[in-house]
Amino acid sequence: MKVFKFGGASVKDAGSVRNVARVLGCFPGEEILIIVSAMGKTTNTLEQLVQLVFEGKAGSQEIIDQLRKQHFDIIKELFPADEHRVYNDVEILFTQLELTVQATQVTDYNKLYDQLVSFGELVSTKIISSFLNSTNYQNKWLDARRLVRTDQNYRFARVDWAFTERLVKETITPGNRYVTQGFIGSDDDFNPTTLGREGSDYSASVFGYILEAEEVVIWKDVPGVLNGDPKIFDNVELLHQISYREAIELAYFGASVIHPKTIQPLQKKSIPLRVQSFLNPSQPGTLITEGSDLTPLLPCFIKKDKQVLLTVATRDLAFIVEDHLSKIYKLFHQFGVRVNLTQNTAVSSSFCINHDPIITPKLMEALSEDFSTSYNDKVTLYSVRHYTDAAKQRVRKSGEVLLEQISRNTYQVATV
Ligand code: ASP
Ligand code: MG
């Protein structure tokens, strides 16, 4: 069996849904499990809904009406005969969403988030599964909340692998094709859960691992994995092959093309991961597998905006030692701060961290109890894997250099 994942951009309107059918038409007779995200920017809109419900519900009906209209516009284009049962199926979901909103007594923001945001994927898969059936691509719709069992860490739920494996193996049988949701699951009490934003890639990897898929394919609007985000860097080129390990490194440094958690399960069972263009399904895209780091071996550019470069020093010019560092890292951990680069001097340590308007001031306050602190905000961090001199220059000249670091395979520079 193959596992295919179609993200929000690949199902954003009726034309895109038809294109999914066209892509699948290139794989006649293959058993495929199709994992789908919410359509277009639906998840962002549902996040707004959660916010409104949390703040007392004013305006929430307008958001639901807007989503209902967007989805029914797509349905009308795909199913001109309005007696098709998809109209009813999707209306039931929107009614459930309304009832959930009305009934909610918000106590737990993250739990509410998962209850509402999971509708995006439920609706999109209903539409896509029905459309594929109407084009004679026979498939069964599956509810991922009944397959992916997680803990109750709402919004960032962790998969219960053993339970999920049992559920998936009981349900998914050879000789069939299926459509299900990425990103969602449920806890032991059947409360919906989500796996973290952009988590559908990870869902594909979970199913791929359990089913020992022949391959997992992520369909994107780019030709594959490029050596830089084309929206940021010019003259980027396609990477034909990447090792699992290199893919994990690239994701770690912030390459956004694959969700960082996706690779590891696949690597454990040597299941190839392919990133391919849904606009050009006959092109092979990028294959992530065992083997050499990168083919071709090109410098890979990653840019992270919204960084803060924080310098923490001892007050009395004492050497900064393990004791201080462990205090500092404890605070990072406590505030959930991700450190992207660090460098030490005798009496100070500098850290490039993701800026968060709420967390950063709190962290600074906590640090200044024991240390003297200073920081630059609006910092950009560039990372270059497999750098060359020209590649280093290219990112270095984009601003004033605050901090630079080189290791065997990686060059990083923080600029303002
Ligand atoms: N729809 C979810 C999101 O936008 C999950 C995903 O697309 O992977 O974050
Ligand atoms: Mg998405």
Describe the structure concisely for a colleague.
The protein contains 13 helices and 17 strands.
List the helices and strands and how they pair.
Layout: E1 2-6, H1 14-25, E2 32-36, H2 42-54, H3 60-78, H4 85-103, H5 109-117, H6 119-134, E3 140-141, H7 161-171, E4 178-181, E5 184-186, E6 192-194, H8 200-210, E7 215-220, E8 241-243, H9 244-253, H10 263-268, E9 273-277, E10 286-289, E11 294-295, E12 300-313, H11 322-335, E13 339-344, E14 348-354, H12 359-367, E15 372-385, H13 389-396, E16 401-406, E17 410-415
Parallel strand pairs: 1-2, 1-7, 2-4, 3-4, 7-9, 8-10
Antiparallel strand pairs: 5-6, 8-11, 9-10, 12-14, 12-15, 13-14, 15-17, 16-17
Please tell me about this protein's structure.
With 416 residues, the protein is an alpha/beta fold. It folds into two domains: 2-220, Acetylglutamate kinase-like (Carbamate kinase), CATH 3.40.1160; 300-415, 2-Layer Sandwich (VC0802-like). The protein is 38% helix and 23% strand. It is built from 13 helices and 17 strands. It has helices at 14-25, 42-54, 60-78, 85-103, 109-117, 119-134, 161-171, 200-210, 244-253, 263-268, 322-335, 359-367, 389-396; strands spanning 2-6, 32-36, 140-141, 178-181, 184-186, 192-194, 215-220, 241-243, 273-277, 286-289, 294-295, 300-313, 339-344, 348-354, 372-385, 401-406, 410-415. A nine-stranded mixed sheet has the order 3-4-2-1-7-9-10-8-11. A six-stranded antiparallel sheet has the order 13-14-12-15-17-16. Strand 1 (2-6), helix 1 and strand 2 form a beta-alpha-beta unit. The chain is globular, with a radius of gyration of 23 Å. The model has no long low-confidence stretch (mean pLDDT 95). Bound molecules: aspartic acid (ASP) and magnesium ion. The site of magnesium ion has 5 residues, from loops.
